[in-house]
């Protein structure tokens, strides 16, 4: 009857993840981050799973019937942030803004009426944002189900630490830094300090404050492990990155699941009035300009807006500008404004010749998927890193706002439009991005289902999660090697010195006897 037992187990394992109940937690996120999270939810819903999605950002479009969105008001720190305060600021400024608000905002989400109603339900797996959902760990612990971390960015800093993923700060630039690759000695030193600083800030400052806030409000169960311990117990780490396009290529443990480009799709026809306007551009084509969804384009300083308008007016191409107001003074006749635009349908249009972007990760992925050269004007955070990568990969350029002038902007636009090497490079990268073993939605769903079928898949967990950093990177081994080498060199040097001293003494006494 052995074959029967094996067959039963196989059937149970194969059906264990069918129609699973998934809880997704991301109380803090931007509009662009929501695109990635919803794409994952849609992929799971397409596999007949039911997704309960708790979010701090109200939906603007209706998701699939299998997705139940639960909106928690007044907790999303991104929506409480003045949009122009993020314009051209550094990582430290943003961290100082978010740091004080995170513990209370997370505890508010956990104690909300919406979350209380969710706690009455049962789930098979939890998919949680790797940043901003830390206070939900004790609730997840009480569920006794596997949980999966997810990031709308790639792996860096504390994320590698949480996944037990080997990380080399000599190779990979922190996404919040504006450094060139390959890095100099000073760059590698700075990059390493920032990586260590980020991990230290999370584990020794942010996590303790979150746990303290939750315990003070009696939201943290007594039997729950520490926040740091639970942050290392996730079954998977889903990231928004295309592994085959990463440069440089780096190693990953099996629990890191690449889902970059999940939201990308073939273009649909443009609205009729917009299609007619695009067709009017003729063979010269048109340029699409957008600074994303976090920063309002009307906050662009006047001197920069004037420089943009002067350059756009001098071009033979038409320019489609995503602008958050209905009108703009001094608008050239070849420029069209719109509050909202179907970005992927525009990027996939055959008459589009250039995308001028702020450099958000999703926009860069969409430009790659549709094969469009890119000119970057980074605004904040990881956009500097993203656009440095684009420029180094040869399918776009990056221009700082402070360097924005008529000649430099116009020349960069013309170079990118007319350089056949740029077009060839972006088309090559498009083919690499699309050449995947299976559709990305199916890939992500497979791994979530795998975790459910195998009870959290502990057999995939990296042993690096339980090793001290000095053992993982053999710091103690190299210290022993250095000490042994130093001792050997010291002993050899001492013996050599004594031998030379004895020889000198012998020669001195020999000369003395000869003189006598």
Output mean pLDDT.
Answer: 88
Helix-strand category: alpha/beta
In quaternary terms, these chains amount to single chain
State the fourth-level CATH superfamily of the largest domain. Answer: Glycogen Phosphorylase B
Number of domains: 2
**Tally of helical segments:** 18
Q: Report the biggest beta sheet as strand number plus sense, adding barrel if it closes.
A: 7 strands, parallel
Provide a brief overview of the structure.
This protein has 516 residues and is α/β, with parallel strands linked by helices. The chain contains 18 helices and 13 strands.
Describe the structure.
This protein is of the alpha/beta class and 516 residues long. It folds into 2 domains: 10-260 and 438-469, Glycogen Phosphorylase B (Rossmann fold), CATH 3.40.50; 272-434, 3-Layer(aba) Sandwich (Rossmann fold). The protein is 46% helix and 11% strand. The chain contains 18 helices and 13 strands. The chain has helices spanning 2-15, 31-45, 91-110, 113-118, 137-143, 158-163, 185-216, 227-231, 272-279, 302-314, 343-347, 361-370, 383-393, 406-418, 420-434, 440-453, 469-472, 475-515; strands at residues 21-26, 50-55, 67-71, 125-129, 147-151, 237-239, 256-258, 286-290, 318-322, 335-338, 352-357, 374-376, 396-398. The strands form 2 sheets. A 7-stranded parallel β-sheet has the order 3-2-1-4-5-6-7. The protein is globular. Mean pLDDT is 88; it is low at 1-15.
